[in-house]
Amino acid sequence: MSTRVEEIHQAGTRDGPLMVAGVAYQSRLLVGTGKYKDLAETARAIEASGAEIVTVAIRRTNIGQTPGEPNLLDVISPEKYTILPNTAGCYTAEDAIRTCRLARELLDGHELVKLEVLGDEKTLFPHIPDTLNAAEVLIKEGFKVMVYTNDDPIVAKRFEEMGCVAVMPLAAPIGSGLGIRNPYNIQFIVEAAGVPILVDAGVGTASDAAVAMELGCDGVLMNTAIASAQNPELMASAMRKAIEAGREAYLAGRMPRKRYGSASSPIDGTFF
Amino acid sequence: MRDSEITTIFVNGEQRAMVAPQTVARLLEELELADKRVAVEVNQEIVPRSRYRAHQLRNADRVEIVRAIGGG
């Protein structure tokens, strides 16, 4: 067990906020806004999740088709939430950089972005060389980069050294709901990290989120697990509790695993 | 009006005829997007909001107008 983890256990219940790029957040659950039935459902689910950081995508405006169409940012107000524009759908560093520049202009100079450069349409696994190239340019331009990556500890460390403000390894492919496929790698990444580590993608249900937090992750970013639940609002609430429960379990420090039984009631004083 | 005064630009990938001269601000007004939360790129360069009135569009310019939508 690393020194960092021991210190945290001794600190007991004195859990601090999640710090991202110098800003303190009480919630360790970050949520996306995609795949909801409508904006009203989006707003209800996000409210129930308790999330303070909310991701959005940047896309072309409909020209002349639906004037007066409600805007996502009217529902998810930048005054209330920290908006985290993503580069979803980008397969090259160039497209991701363009998207971030547009997002910064759209959000009045906002510098926090979620960088993802995809490498394969089937798995949506990240394209690491292009993600590294994009991160380098974006950091130089003053962006605060939260980077989506795979669960490779060496690559995760590289992103930290470059100056990314958070590293976000996948648990499983985006939208798959398969849960944490490689908990040992996530743990390696957490133990070596000097910046927040957030599991991003692959969580399917509340127990997956709790496991991520029990592994020592600083937070979890999810979208489909909530939006594609039968009742998104209720799942958002479940995720909020799972994140809190997993965090507390991590801070508490779990009991060691044993192969055999160990009675909870004393043997002394038995009258039979 | 002379033919040379008709310019063609591309807005979000769609061809659009325009009577020259035209600014980004005027285009956004025509599209009823002037008061909307959008960002504009011309030929892959950002046009800051403060430059909408000054930025003249030219023939064959490729304009992208984007907004935030749901995403994860």
Describe the structure.
The complex is a heterodimer of chains A (272) and B (72). Chain A has a three-stranded parallel sheet. Chain A has a three-stranded parallel sheet with strand order 6-7-8. In chain A, strands 1-2 form a two-stranded antiparallel sheet. Chain A is built from ten helices and ten strands. Chain A has helices spanning 3-11, 39-49, 72-75, 93-106, 128-140, 153-162, 183-192, 206-214, 224-227, 232-252, and strands at residues 18-20, 23-25, 29-31, 53-60, 82-85, 112-115, 144-149, 166-169, 198-200, 219-222. In chain A, helix 8 (206-214) runs parallel beside helix 10 (232-252). In chain A, strand 7 (144-149), helix 6 (153-162) and strand 8 form a beta-alpha-beta unit. Chain A is an alpha/beta fold and 272 residues long. The N and C termini of chain A lie far apart (42 Å). The radius of gyration of chain B is 13 Å and the shape is globular. Chain B has one helix spanning 24-30, and strands at 6-11, 14-19, 22-23, 39-42, 45-47, 56-57, 62-70. In chain B, the strands form two sheets. A five-stranded mixed sheet of chain B has the order 2-1-7-4-5, with no helix packed on it. In chain B, strands 3-6 form a two-stranded antiparallel sheet. The chains are: A alpha/beta (272), B mainly beta (72). The A-B interface holds A 31-36, 42, 55-61, 63-64, 67, 71-73, 83, 85-86, 88, 98, 101-103, 105-107, 174-175, 221-224, 227 and B 11-14, 31-33, 36-41, 44, 46, 48-49, 64-72.
Summarize the structure.
The complex is a heterodimer of chains A (272) and B (72). Helices cover 39% and strands 15% of the residues of chain A.
